[in-house]
Specification:
5-stranded mixed sheet, Glutaredoxin, alpha+beta, about 10% strand
Length: about 650
């Protein structure tokens, strides 16, 4: 018998619709049941391509005995974190507060009947291990405490909420200046893994925004070591493992330092951001290899992860309940594939060695395909071998694809297509088609939505990240096509975002049921605050300088955190550098500008240059005022930039 998830759109919730657990979706029906029956709530947050979510489902949620305990003593609620990032963000903050470390998925929370949290965990095993009691035992303990010590649990929950929502919000500000640039390089060098690339130790994430920032710093400073950290990391990540050499695309993160053994799920946001950063590496280094990786990644997304111009959210790590089964090969079957492809038997052994295929295997007795030098795979029959392995994969079950369409993630991918379209025009038609499809599907009667399934009307309204990334992509679209409709739409979305989420220099991620603060830190993908600031700064240059005051005020509010540890906030740090860049030019040429703008002596920096659309002259603006001159803007820029 199906539970209360049977009518939900989310593919993740549908995965649990046949569990013996009487799951409810987040909503009034579940809340009323908890209050009426005076039961605590068990809240489980996950997503469809999450490996440990599958493990916990198999061990506990499909187990009748465990389900009976849950159904008897609790109201069980399932949430798709991709569908409701506001709920997830709130409870990730709860988890971190209660456990003093970042959370993960699945997130397992216990709430009072009034939805106040009193216990938080991630994956909980079905048997006692990892220093934890079993899930069923924990359920019985919590059920007993809720029955006999409810007042104590309520007190704890109230205390947690007080810490989570302090009444006094302390703000520390410091001067924004270009010392941030050498600080980025210094901090990156301290964290850099000089042996394998990337930063910190396993588990290692691609950190696309950090790599992007390092290339910007190189362009400003010419520091080759800074550039080499980025390029070496990108080359190492492309060897195979994190990057799928057979189908294309990147997995979410590496479980080891070498980028060899990934968690095999492929997320749209990772592939969008990495396609952008590899393309940038191509432009910076002029090495065609990086362009090849970028285009290969886009081609994978277009062929495997899109429909009607829209992009699905993710593909799974597991196939037939085995992690990575679709992706790996035994030694014997790999060689048999070579034989079927007509590759001479005398080169099979050498070819297998070049592709890191061994009898022992490099992943649980099987093999992840990998090469030592992905930029120059000078291996006889290399292309034929990859084609042979691809044909073997075609006989396997492809991992489950979550066909949910998320605005922010689609916007990232569409921006990558527009960027690629400037190098190869064939991508431009895909970019335009996808952007128009996204707007038609998710921007309805001036209302932006967050997520839906293709063919289903969207129900969940957008969050700051959706406004930020879509506005940013619309500006990219305008710059690529000069279609002013895109710029007008970008300005409308920016105005809506300011109205909904901006508050005296700070930004909310969501309002309404869960009012959460937007982060300046880049986590799975870059900060929505930083992305919004980048879009607003562009609009201030293209449309109206008034938008610059929102950028300055936000940077001022967060200046202390960004200036102190810029490597922790790479997209915000990039925004600070972008904001200050014009000021550097102005300072270098103050003697030329003072005769025209005497106020430069008395007003504080930083300043920025803007084109005055009314007379083709230029304006110099700081956070409080603008001063115009009728001199030719293009000519001024040419003079000022010759240094």
């Amino acid at each position: 018998m199906r539970n209360h998830l049977k009518n939900e759109h989310s593919p993740y919730l549908q995965q649990h619709a046949d569990n013996p657990v009487d799951w409810y979706p987040w909503g009034d029906e579940a809340f009323q049941k908890a209050r009426k029956e005076h039961k605590p709530v068990f809240l489980s947050i996950g997503y469809s391509s999450c490996h440990w979510c599958h493990v916990m489902e198999l061990e506990s949620f499909e187990d009748q005995h465990t389900a009976d305990i849950l159904n008897k003593y609790f109201v069980a609620i399932k949430v798709d974190r991709e569908e409701r990032p506001d709920i997830d963000k709130h409870f990730q903050e709860v988890y971190q507060l209660m456990n003093q470390r970042p959370g993960g998925w699945p997130t397992s929370l216990f709430l009072t009947e009034d939805l106040k949290p009193f216990y938080a965990a991630t994956y909980i095993p079905d048997e006692p291990r990892y220093g934890m009691m079993s899930f069923s035992s924990l359920l019985e303990v919590i059920a007993d405490k809720y029955k006999n010590e409810k007042s104590l649990l309520n007190e704890k929950a109230d205390e947690i909420l007080r810490f989570l929502n302090p009444k006094v919000d302390k703000i520390q500000a410091t001067k924004l200046d270009l010392s941030i640039i050498p600080r980025v390089s210094e901090q990156a060098k301290q964290l850099f893994d000089s042996k394998y690339g990337g930063f910190n130790k396993a588990p290692k994430f691609p950190q696309a925004s950090t790599l992007d920032l390092l290339m910007d710093v190189y362009r400003i400073t010419g520091d080759k070591e800074t550039l080499n950290m980025a390029l070496f990391s990108l080359s190492s990540m492309a060897k195979g493992g994190l990057r799928d050499l057979i189908d294309g695309g990147f997995c979410r993160y590496s479980t080891d330092n070498e980028w060899l053994v990934p968690h095999f799920e492929k997320m749209t946001y990772d592939n969008a951001l990495l396609a952008q950063v590899y393309l940038k590496a191509y432009h910076v280094s002029k090495n065609d290899f990086y362009k090849k990786v970028s285009f290969e990644t886009l081609d994978f997304m277009l062929s495997k992860m899109s429909e009607d111009g829209l992009f699905y959210s993710a593909s799974d790590a597991d196939t037939e309940a085995q992690e990575g089964k679709y992706f790996v090969y035994t030694y014997e079957k790999a060689l048999k594939s070579f034989e079927k492809e007509g590759i001479p038997s005398k080169v099979h052994e050498k070819l297998a060695k070049a592709l890191h295929i061994t009898k022992q295997g490099n992943f649980e007795g099987k093999n992840i395909i990998r090469v030592d030098d992905p930029s120059h795979p000078d291996i006889p029959y290399y292309k034929e071998a990859l084609e042979a392995l691809r044909k073997r994969r075609e006989k396997r079950n492809y991992p489950f694809i979550d066909k949910k369409v998320i605005v922010s993630w689609n916007a990232m991918m569409i921006k990558a297509l527009f960027m690629a379209g400037r190098t190869d025009k064939s991508y431009l038609k895909y970019a335009i088609k996808s952007l128009d499809a996204l707007l038609e599907t998710m921007y309805i009667n001036a209302q932006l939505y967050h997520a839906t399934l293709i063919g289903k009307p969207p129900k969940i309204k957008a969050f700051l990240e959706d406004f930020a990334y879509l506005t940013d992509t619309l500006i990219e679209a305008y710059e690529s096509t000069l279609n002013e409709v895109y710029l007008v739409t970008a300005q409308k979305l920016a105005n809506n975002a300011i109205e909904k989420y901006y508050d005296k220099g700070k930004w909310k991620f969501s309002r309404g049921e869960f009012e959460t603060n937007a982060d300046i830190y880049d986590s799975s993908y870059p900060s929505s605050v930083a992305t919004m600031l980048s879009a607003l700064y562009s609009i201030s240059s293209l449309v109206d300088v008034v938008y610059k005051k929102f950028v300055f005020k936000t940077l001022e509010i967060y200046s202390y955190d960004v200036m102190r540890q810029p490597i922790s906030t790479p997209r915000m740090s990039r925004m600070v550098i972008r904001y200050l860049k014009d000021d550097v030019i102005i300072k270098a040429h103050e003697d030329k500008l003072k005769p025209h703008i005497p106020q430069l002596d008395t007003l504080p920096h930083p300043f920025s240059l803007f084109k005055n659309e009314s007379n083709d002259g230029f304006m110099i603006c700081n956070s409080s005022a603008c001063f115009g001159h009728e001199k030719d803007f293009a000519g001024v820029m040419e003079v000022l930039e010759k240094r």
